[in-house]
Design brief:
By secondary structure, the protein is mainly α. It has 4 helices and no strands.
Length: about 120
């Protein structure tokens, strides 16, 4: 039963990703990587012994440990990626605020009557 739920969940996740408006701006490489991850996830759900075989081939004792290591690495990558995006947005916002302040200052000096 859990295998069916995992495969259905992966399918729903893939459909939502491919159908979202934001995904149109996602680079093709990221899209292909995501699709590959979903396919690996489905394969691991259907053949859990294969995950253990891969784990032993790379020197990890159990498949669950390998999955944990991969998830921890992916999580750290995601945190770093989001942090970089946040800092970039913060920098862009500061630039827009600076430009707006300069425009407002320029407009206020033009509309102020000359008192000489």
């Amino acid at each position: 039963m859990i295998r069916v739920l995992l495969v259905v969940g992966a399918g729903v996740l893939l459909a939502v990703f491919l159908a979202s408006v934001a995904s149109a701006r996602v680079r093709a490489g990221r899209r292909l990587l995501f699709i590959a991850m979903i396919l690996v996830f489905i394969g691991a759900a259907l053949q859990p012994d294969a995950v253990t075989a891969v784990a032993r081939a790379v020197g990890v004792g159990r498949g669950a440990d390998l999955v944990l290591y991969i998830l921890a690495t992916a999580f750290l990558y995601l945190v770093l990626f989001i942090y970089q995006k946040f800092k970039d947005q913060e920098r862009r916002l500061a630039e827009v605020v600076r430009q707006l302040a300069l425009v407002e200052a320029s407009l206020s000096t033009r509309t102020t009557p000359d008192r000489t």
